[in-house]
From TrEMBL:
Domain (GHMP kinase C-terminal) ranges: 754-812
Region (Disordered): 1-29, 846-883
UniProt pathway annotation: Isoprenoid biosynthesis; isopentenyl diphosphate biosynthesis via mevalonate pathway; isopentenyl diphosphate from (R)-mevalonate: step 1/3
Stated name of the protein: Cysteine-S-conjugate beta-lyase
Catalytic reaction(s) noted: (R)-mevalonate + ATP = (R)-5-phosphomevalonate + ADP + H(+)
A Pfam family the protein falls into: GHMP_kinases_N
Major place of residence: cytoplasm
SUPFAM superfamilies: GHMP Kinase, C-terminal domain, PLP-dependent transferases, Ribosomal protein S5 domain 2-like
Annotated ranges, domain GHMP kinase N-terminal: 568-605
């Protein structure tokens, strides 16, 4: 049993008795929080010996019957002291100590029942997402993830009776986004009086923010962080003011048995005593660090900076800005160098410790997986997170400055007599200019072959529903398009599109309609609209002889020539452009976007608008322990340029593309997509950090009319708005959950990811069937793959036009089963492709001699894409032309052969 605390009045002014009797003439002011933190006094639990520090009652049982304590699962004196103390500093009537932050959330979520709905942030701590998924799939609770930084985004999801809980975090980690806890609590209470507002207060601690004062019903902290402060224990604290909730929480903890152990209670109590001094020091230094980085021109995320979005709200609901901040350098490699160059800042996960920590969220959590996937976006790839400790601030700033200088992020300006920021990409660009000899092309003369490749895409979740505003998830599929430009040097330009009716053409460069288009400056962006005059001129000039039966080839050649004329008017290189694909064309797998990406990139390379990373010196490579994968990655601005031009090519090919396919082709990995016009944020957001997944992609070869299928769903929605609406809601939930599962997979394990995805694939397919967009062949594929011994989950992919299905293949799926399944599907007349999803995006075969293979030993497995092991020991003399082999390799050999040529540079 816990000691009695007044549960009626919320303890906004803390009720610790003053040490001296009240003076009749001069009243005492309430103690400040820093005083309360250190004064661990519980008037109803006086120690028999007057011990200064609360003893550890390391006892499971207590003698006697009917006493205050009998069994430590139900109550323990050391724990009671801790709980009383935390309640006091949290403006709470009751507090409960459990074994971790996640255990705290687990106890809270057990307040829910099947059918309840939760509204939760969309940028929550990953562990929180994991647990929410669990209760969604196992308890039948609906979880709506919304952007809680915008209270208006929350309101539409509040249901007067169904909404049982609203779960908030502010600020978020690591982008320090702010949610208005007070306003959201008020809105929730007005609309759903029985809903409980829960706040994860870990980033702030009760010293800096006490959400119970702003209308929250329950607050929890990972006490592993600031409350304990030393990274020497795991603990979670739950606080609340409502007696009914306290009773249920106490019941769960007693039933489950996850209360904090006496020794950890003792350590946590000791930690809390110094929390105020630690945090004062930590946040004062954080302010200095944030201001310093901001003054250098870095993009800094810290609520203590005047331009931080949500700063005004944060100031209203909190007493400080905390000790976590993050900043962007504009260049991932540069960030890696900075992080690798610090000495005092320890490279570590977590926060809240007395020691200062530095991390690169993208690189650290993803270092062990496919390097190309790490480079996917979402959180800025170059983001550096700083968790400031209590070291001397000048030492911390000095160490950071040294690291910035060592990494080349800042340099001493003689003119200004101070360190100034080196523009991002500057050093690499200089080096690239030096090395232009490698790809040099003067007017007409090209000495070098450029070999590029880009993946296709599959829609993993949300097809059809995306048309109605639901989030779709698209991922790269490792069936690729390859493009090769080889020098001709005879004043001619030629192209061979092997997979588009074997289209071949040759043009006199001077005869191309150069006059129809104003040349584009080296740094000039292509305007939004296509140059119709140039399109007309190409149709009536170089393409005039292509008949109407050659529509596909005509469009592809148009896109190629359009970009050639726009991009290379200064160089006008004489080259042959050869394209091949291991990707079926016209199966709804993004073949046109991968073609567009290859053509755009080859032309950008020829016009020197895309530059390659320089080769780092062995010294810096050794010094940088963080990541050895990213060093040869294509820089972001190059990738963005390629994406921009691939989109232009897509516009030429499709008229009004969404931009999803080319983004996947360039950046690889996976992304979410929302169409504009549905009153919520639209656009793309990358999902990063999951290792590529094996999928079986089966082409049913049943051609279908995508437009008709889409229209059919539209009609059904008009006729049965409620039914279709609820299907769309369910699909939205699946997409949101899939996004979180993919993003959190590094932390929560691949096994969990595969299990979650498998459930979601089956669920999503069922919904697509209800929308009437499946067909018998797809159902045969689904049934065959679901049957024992395979037991696999399959769904149709794309709007249906391509007639393809995707089947998730677990890592432990045996080769024999795979072989059997492949032959069963082939026997039925389908084309199955075993492929991987979520792998690398755009790749360029490195032209550096040291990256070209002379033997198989130079293969870098981490950089391998596509994933298959090369099936033959091709050795290529670096002096050899790639062209001859490229044209003659069989489709099944192409992937392994390309991969074996040398190192591929990925985004
Ligand atoms: N909430 C937040 C914001 C966190 O950062 C963490 C841990 O990193 C947790 C909850 C989970 O806490 P614990 O690791 O103590 O279970």
């Amino acid at each position: 049993m816990s000691p009695t605390i007044d549960t009626k009045t919320p303890a906004v002014h803390h009720d610790l008795p003053t040490p001296d009797p009240e003076s009749p003439t001069r009243t005492r002011q309430p103690y400040k929080l820093s005083t309360l933190c250190v004064a661990v006094e519980n008037p109803s639990m006086k120690d028999q010996y007057g011990s200064s520090s609360v003893p550890i009652y390391q006892s499971a049982t207590f003698k006697g019957v009917g006493n205050e304590y009998d069994y430590s699962r139900s109550g323990n004196p050391t724990r009671s002291h801790l709980e009383h103390h935390i309640a006091k500093i949290s403006s709470a009537a009751r507090a409960f100590a459990v074994s971790s932050g996640m255990a705290a959330l687990d106890v809270i979520l057990r307040l829910l029942r099947p059918g309840d709905e939760i509204i939760a942030g969309d940028d929550l701590y990953g562990g929180t997402n994991r647990l929410l998924t669990f209760i969604r799939t196992h308890v039948g609770v609906t979880v709506h993830h919304v952007d809680t930084t915008d209270p208006n985004a929350v309101i539409p999801f509040i249901h007067p009776t169904k909404t049982a809980m609203v779960l908030l975090e502010s600020p978020t980690n690591p982008l320090l986004k702010i949610a208005d806890l007070a306003l959201i609590s008020k809105e929730v209470k007005e609309r759903a009086p029985n809903a409980i507002v829960v706040v994860d207060n870990t980033m702030m601690s009760p010293y800096l923010q006490r959400p119970l004062e702003h209308g929250a019903d329950i607050v929890y902290d990972s006490a592993t962080k600031y409350l304990s402060g030393h990274h020497d224990l795991m603990a979670g604290m739950i606080t609340c003011n409502r007696d009914d909730l306290a009773k249920q929480i106490a019941f769960t903890i007693n039933s489950v048995g996850n209360a904090l152990t006496p020794i950890d209670c003792f350590l946590l109590l000791r930690g809390v005593k110094t929390m105020a001094v630690r945090m004062d020091r930590q946040q004062a230094t954080s302010q200095l660090v944030a201001t310093y980085l901001h003054s250098l021109g870095f993009k800094v995320h810290y609520p203590g900076l005047p331009d931080h979005p949500g700063r005004e709200i944060h100031q209203r609901i909190s007493d400080g800005n905390g000790a976590v901040l993050s900043f962007e350098t504009g260049d991932k490699e540069l960030s890696e160098k900075i992080v690798g160059s610090t000495r005092l800042w320890g490279i570590s996960v977590s926060f809240g410790c007395v020691n200062s920590l530095i991390s690169m969220p993208c690189v650290m959590s993803h270092a062990s997986i496919d390097p190309a996937i790490r480079a996917a976006r979402g959180l800025p790839e170059d983001l550096i997170r700083l968790c400031v400790g209590i070291e001397d601030s000048s030492d911390l700033l000095d160490d950071l400055e040294h690291a910035l200088v060592d990494a080349g992020a800042i340099a001493l300006s003689a003119q200004q007599n101070k360190y100034v920021r080196v523009p991002p990409g500057h050093a690499a660009l200089n080096k690239a200019v030096e090395q232009l000899a490698i790809g040099s092309s003067n007017s007409r003369g090209v000495e070098h072959e450029w070999f590029v490749s880009a993946p296709g895409k599959v829609i993993l979740f949300g097809e059809h529903a995306v048309v109605h505003g639901v989030t779709a998830i698209a991922a790269s599929v490792d069936l690729r398009c390859y493009g090769l430009t080889s020098p001709r040097n005879d004043g001619k330009l030629s192209a061979h599109f092997n997979d588009i009716n074997d289209f071949q053409a040759e043009w006199d460069i001077e005869s191309l309609p150069w006059g129809a288009s104003a040349p584009l400056g080296h740094h000039e962006r292509h305007p939004e609209d296509l140059d119709q005059q140039l399109i007309e001129a190409i149709h009536s000039g170089p393409l005039r002889e292509l008949g109407p039966d050659k529509d596909q080839a005509r469009n592809a050649a148009l896109a190629f020539l359009y970009m050639y004329i726009k991009l290379t008017s200064a160089e006008r290189p004489s080259v042959h452009f050869d394209v091949r694909a291991t990707l079926p064309v016209g199966a709804g797998l993004g073949s046109s976007a991968s073609f567009s990406t290859c053509a755009a990139t080859a032309l950008l390379l020829l016009s020197h608008r895309v530059t390659l990373p320089s080769i780092p010196s062995p010294i810096s490579a050794e010094h940088l322990h963080l990541s050895h994968h990213g060093r040869h990655a294509l820089e972001k601005h190059n990738a963005e340029e390629a994406n921009h031009w691939a989109f232009i090519a897509e516009k030429i090919l499709h008229g009004n593309p969404s931009g999803v396919d080319n983004s996947v082709a360039v950046f690889g990995g996976a992304l979410t997509y929302n169409r504009p016009g549905f009153g919520k944020p639209s656009g793309m957001e990358s999902i990063q950090g999951f290792g590529s997944l094996r999928f079986l992609l089966t082409n049913s070869k049943v051609p279908r009319d995508t437009k008709k299928l889409v229209a059919g769903v539209g009609l059904m929605k008009q006729e049965q708005p409620e039914v279709v609406g609820s299907i769309l809601d369910s699909i939205e939930n699946i997409s949101a959950q899939a996004k979180r599962s993919l993003a959190d997979s590094t932390e929560f394990g691949r096994e969990n990811l595969l299990r979650d995805l498998s459930v979601m694939i089956s669920e999503n397919h069922k919904h697509l069937v209800s929308l009437g967009v499946s067909h018998p062949s797809l159902e045969v594929i689904r049934e065959k793959t679901a049957a024992p011994p395979y037991n696999l989950s399959t769904k149709l992919t794309g709007a249906g036009g391509g007639g393809c299905a995707v089947t998730l293949i677990p890592d432990d799926f045996s080769d024999t089963s795979m072989k059997d399944l492949l032959s069963e599907l082939t026997e039925c007349g389908f084309d199955p492709y075993l492929t991987s999803v979520g792998g690398s995006g755009l790749g360029i075969l490195s032209p550096y001699p040291e990256h070209r293979n002379t033997s198989a030993k130079d293969i870098h497995p981490g950089q391998v894409t596509p994933p298959e092991t090369p099936d033959e020991a091709n050795t290529t003399d670096p002096g050899d032309s790639i062209k001859a082999s490229f044209e003659t390799k069989s489709l099944s050999e192409l992937t392994g052969w390309a991969q074996n040529l040398g190192k591929w540079l990925y985004v």
